[in-house]
Amino acid sequence: xxxxxxxxxxxxxxxxxxxxxxxxxxxxxxxxxxxxxxxxxxxxxxxxxxxxxxxxxxxxxxxxxxxxxxxxxxxxxxxxxxxxxxxxxxxxxxxxxxxxxxxxxxxxxxxxxxxxxxxxxxxxxxxxxxxxxxxxxxxxxxxxxxxxxxxxxxxxxxxxx
Length: 161
Hints:
Layout: E1 6-9, E2 27-31, E3 36-39, H1 58-81, E4 84-90, E5 93-98, E6 104-111, E7 113-118, H2 125-138, E8 148-151, E9 154-156
Parallel strand pairs: 6-8, 7-9
Antiparallel strand pairs: 1-2, 2-3, 4-7, 5-6
């Protein structure tokens, strides 16, 4: 098996009193490959100026992780099937709702991939659906969450049925 790490760093600024709740939630994520990402609580959760809308919030990161994992498997399975993918774009969205126990949770994530295929061998609609299904089943991140994951995609360059 493999291990995946991330370092999360937050520091209180000298002028922040902390106990009054008036401190910045901005922080940094650092990854083993050297990438550093500004992060923060969502401005929908913690009001400005105590959150930083330019930072990635945990909710966005979860949605992006699901979308990215799904895309990487779609690309690999398309390659294995002999389908050439020119572009893959996804405007994914997560919905936070109150659960039966009253706690908020990411109840649903909707992926909206737009894929453009080219080449001599083109997938049919059923092939595309099978690619998405196989990718969803294989995605480590999707297998790790209890949220509903919807795929409402579109594609160009499909073969005629």
